[in-house]
What we know:
The protein is an alpha+beta fold.
Amino acid sequence: ANDFESLDEWEKQSGTTLPYLLKVLTAAHPLSLQAHPNPAQAAAGFAREEAAGIARTAFDRSYKDPYAKPELIVALNDGFQALCGFRPIAQTAAVLTQLAEIAPEPEPVRAFRELLTTEGLRNTVAFTLSRTADVQTLVAALVAADQVDGTIAPVIGIVQRAFPHDDGIALAMLHNHLTLRKGESLWLPAGNVHAYLHGSGMELMGP
């Protein structure tokens, strides 16, 4: 049998491309919220950015290759925490109701709940990404409520400690906050918005 110094060398000599990407991931603080494209979106997005002449190494490039990135992560320790997919609106509304009841400034939290329940998820997500003073007012109210009782929505404190008063705190509130035990896993298909918050995991994804 041949010995190879690296997978790269094996690929070159064998003419075979490894059909997956394997990572050992350890998150000491929350990583970015992200979603992966499906195969058609990946191919079209890559072609579009190539035609536009955007460098593959550019910070604002979204499609650095034409491949989808289906992803599975398995927790290597108890307490691996992640955000995975948008939580049902009724569940998030119930959490916001609890937070409004204890918030020193409840009105921004109530307004956020009203936006979610009347205009739906799309418009609520757009609001959290709007970078307006209203979002900062909401974040301040959420952080203040969390300081009164950090058990209602622990994700507030987790993100706040890493990224104080970041607009992402409001966006994180809309997601399922999951805690895995060692050996438990998450499957993250195309379009699933997710972020890893804390812990170590073995990640398997498309190459």
